[in-house]
Amino acid sequence: MLFSDAEVKQLKHTRSTEGTLGVIYRRVETLTRKQAVLEARVAILEIALSSRQSSVALDTEQVRAVRSAVTSTCKSRDLTFSDVVAWSDDLLRLDREACKAVGIKRLRKLADKLILVGDESPEALGDASKSIHVDKLTIFRDRLGKYSKA
Fold this sequence. Notes:
This protein has two domains: 5-48, no CATH class; 54-149, no CATH class. It contains eight helices and no strands. It has helices at 5-12, 20-51, 60-75, 81-92, 96-102, 104-120, 122-126, 132-149.
């Protein structure tokens, strides 16, 4: 960020007879809006790029390993934002058959738990661009709903 929130607020509440601060304030406001738009576009592009990665089909041994990892992660009480990041891309790459083999309900439970952790994490709350990982998990959870109906 180019300017801190405190600096922007200070400029917002400061008036100048010459109008210089008003011009600066409008420029800062415009730059802040442009930055927000760019951050949103980057987030959208990251989702698009991650979704273009090829799907992963798992063999029987890999299904067991993933199922075990999903189960242990679901049981964990001390998940962090790094867990959200680590799982978000990997889950999004699982194809329909892999999801069914691992277990739709089990994967939905994991996605729900990771989304909750991500939504409450200081990392995502402090930096909106990091919420992309939670968005990926939400997309995955929605995809699971379609898989279970098919």
